[in-house]
Amino acid sequence: MHDVDGDRDWIAGLDWSKYRRPHTDYVGEGFFLPGVVEMFARQVCAPYPDEIDFFLANAGNTPPGRVVPAEDAFAADGSPLFSVHQRLNTLMRSHADELEVAIARADMISREEWTAVMDAGQDDWALGQGARRAVDGLAPIIARMAAEKKILCHARDRTDSGKTTDITGREWWDLDPEQAIRRIASGGINVADPFGPDAVPDHHIFVTRDGLQNAITEAQRTEYVAIAFVEFGKWAIRRRADHYAVQVAEVTEFLIGLMDSGNYETAINEDFEYEVKAEFGVRGLGRCYERAKAAAIAEEKRARFGKRRRQA
Questions:
Q1: What is the rounded distance in angstroms from the CA atom of residue 254 to the CA atom of residue 279?
Q2: Phi then psi for 215, rounded to 5 degrees?
Q3: Structure pTM?
Q4: What is the dihedral of CA 242, 244, 246, 250, to 10 degrees?
Q5: Which residue, among 137, 162, 166, has the nearest Cα to 151 in the 3D structure?
Q6: Where are the domains of the chain?
Q7: Could you read off the pLDDT of 163-173 as tens digits, one per residue?
């Protein structure tokens, strides 16, 4: 498997830990930037792997490098090809350590061991490449929309959550693609030095609800980020059909109807889940419900339903 996306490998070195939580966990007066990136990704990137939890967090997966399958590393009689092993021995042993594949000898890697490393790393490498393609394509789109004030952003001081600064417009978002990716990864900004290459972010970035859904809809109509092709492995092949998106849309519409009816003003999250299960069965719960509710409360008039849960 050759790393056809080697020019994006540097993205793996950034911290993507903020993408390991559902975007619905970051709902407040606005949406935390990593959550907004996830919202855009689901509408703009294709094919988006719905069955992979926290897909964008995989941008930090170790790149495969220019590895080759076992048939290109061994002769027909099973003997190792010296030039290939000399070039890739260190890389393959590093991958073996990460993937917990045992290598018996210090002087060579057997064909069986080589194949085991390739098999163990296939999905991890493919997901990493796909996620890096996604953020590489999404970051300039989101930066441009913030620069054009199609999405409205504010920065919240990490040490004083009550202190906010408006950061919408070109004076904050006139970024080159690499700068945009770094900002997207951190979910933050250094307000005193927003474009400094060594500036450490000291504020979290939040996106105001107003206009956000319109911006996502516009991006869905005008932008397209291809993140997977044939070489990206079975996760792309087994991607669910579009009926899943239709199902989420149906649950979203149902929740909006409940919230706007006036009969659920004191309802908590479990009440809405109960109604969804009664209408759609268990297929309407889980991630489907989470995404549908996030879409339903994206408008300010329904934001009050966002954090209601039964107290322990």
A1: 9
A2: -65, -40
A3: 0.68
A4: 180
A5: 166
A6: 70-126, 241-312
A7: 889 999 999 99
